[in-house]
Amino acid sequence: MMKSLMLASAFAALLLSPVAANAACTAPVISDENLVEKGKLQLSINPTNPPQQFVDKDGKLQGLNVEMAAELSKRLCMPVELVRMDFPAMIPGMAAGRIDGMNTGMFWTEERSKLMYLVPNGRQSVSVVVAPDSAATYSSPEELLGKSSAVEVSTYQMNWLKKFSDESVAKGTTAVEMRTFPTATNVVSALLAGQTDNALLVDSVARDLVSKGRVKEVLSGLGAARTAMSFRNKAVAEAVVKATTEMRADGSYKALFDKFGLTPLNDDEPVEIAGPGPT
Question: Reading across the β-sheet that carries 12-16, which strands appear in turn?
Fold first, then answer.
């Protein structure tokens, strides 16, 4: 059933080829035995979270993670294929050996670090938003209790909200009425349709929507953590670590994050495989 869901969700792909002018390209950095399909690196992406990843008015993939993939293609000397699918299908799809990794700004967690090889490459947090014409104000997360919140299913923000709600209930307070949706787009649509009191989004998505006047941010900086790319094969992860470290050294890494207004790793945080990987 999960395989069927993944196949139904993977509805398009974009192939990013290495830049021909890259003189360092003599052979692919990653050998075929470490790849799902010979000669290319296949990474999943869900283009519903601008400015990380989104589809522009011409139907083209855009965003930080798209440009990061293009830069990796150049440095790994091989095509990178971005396979579009919904987030819930990604981890089982990678575990089933249908993709090499995930390029979707997933939050690092200890649990996930035991399922796959995670390479943190940025930082984000969770924001709470309301409809732009709402008079609601929130001064603390505790004001979410007893209210209805829209959140994307199987995400860090959903898990953060559930943990917060469960811990609050254990202390004798009211739970959050959590309503889950397949994508961030669905979350915002439900909020604007009046189906929930508020919505939880990744901070960069919230800021993008605020700039367009679509929502109003009422809380920010919740659950701050690293975001990461993920891989099924350690050799692939190590190659991406090396390429990203080179980007950091030559300034292209920070320039990319600055371009899209996203938060890079702290200066004292190395680019590395964080966690034990599959056990």
Answer: 12-16, 80-84, 41-45, 101-107, 216-231, 117-130, 198-202, 148-152, 177-181
Neighbours of 211 (CB within 10 A): 11
* 139-198 pLDDT per residue, tens: 999 999 999 999 999 999 999 999 999 999 999 999 999 999 999 999 999 999 999 999
Instruction: Please state, in angstroms and as integers, the Cα–Cα distance from residue 192 to each residue in 129, 133, 208, 210, 278, following that order.
Output: 10, 10, 16, 13, 40
Residue 9 confidence (pLDDT): 40
State which amino acid sits at residue 94: M
Tokens of 262: 């996203």
What is the Cα–Cα distance from 50 to 174, expressed in whole angstroms?
33
Could you tell me what percentage of the chain is helix, strand and coil, using 3-state DSSP and rounding each to the nearest 5? 35, 30, 35
Task: Enumerate helices (H) and strands (E) in the chain, giving the number of each.
Answer: 9, 12
**Helix (H) or strand (E) segment spanning residue 44:** strand 41-45
What does the alpha-carbon distance between residue 242 and residue 106 come to, in Å, rounded to a whole number? Answer: 20
Q: What is the pTM of this model?
A: 0.86
Run of H or E including 219: strand 216-231
**pLDDT tens-place string over residues 234-267:** 999 999 999 999 999 999 999 999 999 999 999 9
